[in-house]
Write a structure and sequence with these properties.
The complex is a heterodimer of chains A (331) and B (279).
Chain A (H helix, E strand, L loop, with lengths): L2 H11 L9 E7 L4 H19 L3 E7 L2 H9 L6 E3 L3 H9 L7 H4 L1 H4 L2 E3 L1 E5 L10 H4 L6 E2 L7 H16 L5 H13 L8 H9 L6 E5 H10 L6 E3 L3 E3 L1 E2 L2 E3 L1 H6 L3 H10 L3 H9 L3 E2 L2 H6 L8 E3 L1 H5 L2 H9 L4 H8 L1
Parallel strand pairs in A: 1-2, 1-3, 6-7, 9-13
Antiparallel strand pairs in A: 3-11, 4-10, 4-12, 5-7, 5-8
Helix pairs in contact in A: 2-14, 3-4, 8-9, 9-18
Chain B lengths: L3 H10 L6 H29 L3 H9 L2 H34 L5 H13 L2 H12 L6 H6 L8 H12 L1 H14 L2 H8 L4 H30 L2 H7 L9 H10 L3 H28 L1
The chains are: A alpha/beta (331), B mainly alpha (279).
């Protein structure tokens, strides 16, 4: 954290209001992005000062992405959202807070960085877990959060299902059977990603933890003494980290310009470098090339290609009595 | 352990009774207390200091954590006096007067005990939120209730509402109104009766209730989590800050913040114990 930020925080602490008018944005974000934006925001503040000569304060709010979307609907004055679920931005668009065509407003479907469901295995990978098919083996215990309650778990379910479809000639029944086998290998379904991490790392349950690739690296670092190893499967599912300007709020706050620029800036080499250092995959070619060794090659399927979009995922898989429910029951 | 000795002796003196049973029960109680209360408490501090003093201090003096501590204290400072005032008023009305709806009032005061705080949070959101009943009017007048200090204070007030009144009610009921009536016959006015007679009689129960109310106010998580918006350095209270750091894999930071909250709670409990012994 840079000193300027500390002074600003201290000023807030003492209840003082900044004497001069300045740019100010509230970035409402998902729950595990605190350190990421603590690294990014000071860089943008410098960039903005150099570009416009103005100071900008960036306030952060972190929480489960769906809960955050709900709070914005109820009046949390977010100027920009940086989420980990596209559907949560869609909810805002449906209510007129975000432009209908937010995906086209920025490159790469408004996802400046992305990740994918990947594996974290125990030291030396004793079970030799390399790909999704290994998770269906009888001798493997897998840990991931409940897809019913966790966006992270939902991605794992969809990635496994996409793998099942691809390797069974798109036979839905066979894919169901495949995912069912993986589910049967899950000793405990936690409600969220953090709880699943604890189950794996601190309660020592399971042979493999499935979570976002960006997370696996962070967890391996946090529990360095346990020697966990990150494994990226050969195929996985593209997990977007969508960003959007909450136009209605930003207009009201007079922060439309700085909000838009903030999101655009996330695509600059400078920001992409910081994102890559925080284990997210980025689209900038030079930065991606520089970090190529940290991000193994992977064939990424998308929700649109495999499932025909999030709308269909909702109605066919996640809805009450949908395919997810059937897999749960049949395990 | 000091409890164990007299218990065991009592068992020894009772004729025809085995000494094994009381010892077993006491042992069980000690083990359970250790597992449920003592070990987690020690663990909080052990984890907080796991990476040494420097790391601990760094986490505690983090601007965001300091702000969370300050905000949590501010909320308690606003909420507790309001609850004291309303607690006294409610207890006074209920124990000194007979009026229709008196029983209903007693039940109403207890509602926050039986309702989960998250429901309180959601109710306030549905009333004061942008899409809520009064939301459009509030927005039109640029009044911020939700995702700002007023919202956090409102929900905390709801959750802690019963503490003072619940402490005062049984005491004032037992004491009856004779002394106050005597004061009135001797010519005391309303305020004199209250400050000279009622208040001295209830002061320990009042303090005790205020202490419990404080402990609850600083620890409130569920309801506040709904209405706070968790804006760091603005509306993030200490319990929310702990959750955030914990989710963010900053275990030491989470436990450092948790240790602060624990220390506050322990101080409050020590005050409570001291009050109890004077009562």
């Amino acid at each position: 954290m840079i000193p300027k930020f500390r002074i600003a925080a201290l000023a807030l602490l003492l209840g003082a209001t900044p004497a001069m008018a300045q740019d100010k944005i509230l970035n409402v974000s998902y729950d595990i992005a605190r350190e990421l934006f603590e690294a990014l925001n000071p860089e943008f503040q410098t960039y903005w000062k150099d570009k416009t000569g103005r100071d900008v304060t960036i306030d952060q709010s972190h929480g489960g992405s769906s809960k955050q979307a709900r709070a914005i609907l109820e009046g949390l004055p977010a100027d920009v959202v940086t989420f980990n679920q596209e559907t949560d931005v869609d909810v805002l668009a449906k209510n007129g807070l975000v432009e209908e065509n937010w995906r086209e407003a920025l490159p790469n479907a408004a996802s400046p960085y992305y990740s994918l469901p990947a594996f974290l295995v125990r030291k030396g990978n004793p079970k030799g877990i390399k790909d999704w098919s290994d998770l269906a083996r009888d001798d493997v215990k897998a840990v991931f959060p409940n897809p019913k309650t966790s966006g992270n778990g939902r991605y794992t379910y969809l990635a496994a299902f996409a793998y099942g479809l691809a390797n069974n000639g798109n036979d839905v029944e066979k894919a169901k059977e495949f995912v069912g086998k993986i589910f049967a290998n899950v000793p405990v379904f936690d409600t969220g990603g953090r709880a699943a991490t604890q189950t794996f790392a601190e309660r020592n349950i399971g042979d493999v933890l499935i979570t976002f690739e960006a997370e696996t690296k962070g967890i391996a670092k946090q529990y360095a003494d346990q020697g966990f190893e990150a494994v990226t499967p050969a195929t996985s599912l593209f997990a977007a980290f969508p960003v959007a300007v909450v136009t209605e709020n930003a207009k009201k706050d007079g922060a439309l310009e700085v909000s838009t620029e903030y999101l655009k800036w996330l695509y600059t080499p400078e920001a992409q470098e910081t994102l890559a250092e925080n284990h997210y995959r980025v689209t900038d070619k030079d930065v991606a090339a520089k970090h190529a060794t940290e991000f193994p090659e992977v064939k990424l399927l998308t929700v649109d290609e495999v499932f025909g979009g999030w709308g269909k995922v909702q109605s066919e898989h996640l809805a009450e009595g949908g395919i997810l429910d059937q897999v749960f029951v049949n395990q | 352990m000091s409890l164990a000795a007299p218990q065991a002796r009592a068992g020894a003196h009772a004729p025809g009774q085995s000494r094994a049973m009381p010892r077993l029960l006491i042992g069980l109680a000690v083990v359970l207390t250790a597992i449920i209360v003592v070990v987690p408490l020690v663990f909080i501090f052990w984890r907080a200091f796991a990476q040494g003093w420097a790391s601990y201090l760094g986490n505690i003096t983090d601007a965001q954590t300091l702000h969370a501590i300050w905000l949590t204290a501010l909320v308690a400072v606003i909420v507790v006096p309001v609850n004291i005032a309303f607690g006294i008023a409610a207890a006074w009305a209920i124990t000194r007067f007979r009026f229709p709806g008196r029983k209903l009032l007693v039940t109403l005061i207890e509602i926050p005990f039986s309702i989960s705080p998250i429901i309180a949070g959601i109710c306030y959101l549905l009333l004061y939120g942008r899409q809520g009943l009064w939301g459009p009017w509030l927005a039109a007048h640029d009044l911020k209730i939700m995702f700002a200090l007023p919202g956090i204070v409102l929900v905390t007030m709801f959750v802690t509402a019963p503490f003072v009144a619940r402490e005062l009610l049984p005491l004032m009921q037992a004491q009856g109104s004779e002394q106050e009536e005597a004061a009135v016959t001797l010519g005391a006015r309303g305020w004199q009766v209250f400050s000279r007679v009622t208040l001295p009689n209830i002061r320990w129960a009042l303090l005790y209730g205020a202490v419990l109310c404080t402990a609850r106010a600083v620890g409130e998580f569920g309801g506040v989590s709904v209405v706070s918006g968790s804006i760091r350095g603005q509306t993030n209270t200490l319990p929310l800050q702990i959750e955030l750091m914990f989710n963010d894999l900053n275990t030491t930071g989470a436990f450092a913040a948790a240790s602060t909250l624990t220390v506050i709670a322990l101080i409050v409990l020590i005050i409570k114990a001291a009050l109890e012994s004077r009562r």
